[in-house]
Amino acid sequence: MSPRLRLLAPVFAIAVVAAACGGSASPTPSEPPATAAPTAAPSMAPVESSGPAAICDDAAVFRASMITLANLKLLEVGTSGVKAAVDDVKSSAQALLVSGKELLAQPVGDLLAAVTALQATLTSLGDQSSLGAGVAAVKLAIEEIKAAADGVEAALGTTCPMQ
Questions:
Q1: Mean pLDDT by 10 residues, the chain (163 residues)
Q2: What are the two backbone dihedrals, phi and then psi, of residue 71, each rounded to the nearest 5 degrees?
Q3: What is the pLDDT of residues 98-137, one digit of tens each?
Q4: What is the pTM of this model?
Q5: What percent of the chain is helix, strand and coil (3-state, nearest 5)?
Q6: CB 141 within 8 A of CB 118
Q7: DSSP conformation letters of 105-117
Q8: How far is CA 36 from CA 69, 70, 109, in A?
Q9: What one-character-per-residue DSSP string does 40-81 give?
Q10: Is 53:23 a contact under the CB 8 Å cutoff?
Q11: Which of 49, 52, 64 is nearest to 16 (CA)?
């Protein structure tokens, strides 16, 4: 996949999910390139909203944050880049938990536990400019987050199917 197409993939995914879910689509910040360190996104504090449209909007933001995390070049973005991407996943998962309530309580809880484990791994690495020897541990923790995200997707089921 060309680098340009890879950069547009998250935007396309959000557009497809928003169109499939209906309701009003709210603009989302564009994702940083996979090779650049993610910048701090505006706070995505959970908002009290519910219903399929709210769940699908939050699911689209969550999916985009997972794409960014999955496409990170660990040695290029360093600890701070991974921390920023994980923070985005965590805040989008928390928003999804609020809008999804009982439907997503267990799978999002599992995901947040995996995020907490990765954050602990990152903290144990210190403030290194690169992840060096800790890359294997970080990759394993990211794989755990991806597995937990699969559980979230399964719970979303027909409410907000992936396109």
A1: 39 36 40 44 46 87 95 85 94 94 90 93 68 75 94 89 76
A2: -95, 10
A3: 998 888 999 999 999 999 999 988 888 765 555 556 778 8
A4: 0.65
A5: 70, 0, 30
A6: yes
A7: HHHHHHHHHHHHH
A8: 12, 13, 29
A9: PPPP----S--SHHHHHHHHHHHHHHHHHHHT--HHHHHHHH
A10: yes
A11: 64
Rounded to 10 deg, the angle between the 74-125 and 52-70 helix axes is 100
User: CA-to-CA distance for 138 and 131, rounded, in angstroms?
Assistant: 8
Over its C-alpha atoms, the chain yields an Rg (Å, rounded) of: 15
Give the tokens for residue 46.
């959970």
Q: What CA dihedral angle connects 78, 82, 85 and 88, to 10 degrees? A: -130
Contact between 42 and 73 (Cβ < 8 Å)? no
Separation CA 83–CA 67 (nearest Å) = 15
Quote the tokens at residue 158: 């027909």
Residues 43, 53: Cα–Cα separation, whole Å: 20
Calpha distance 57→27 (Å, rounded): 10
Residue ranges covered by each domain of the chain? 3-24+48-156
Task: Write out the two tokens for 12.
Answer: 């396309």
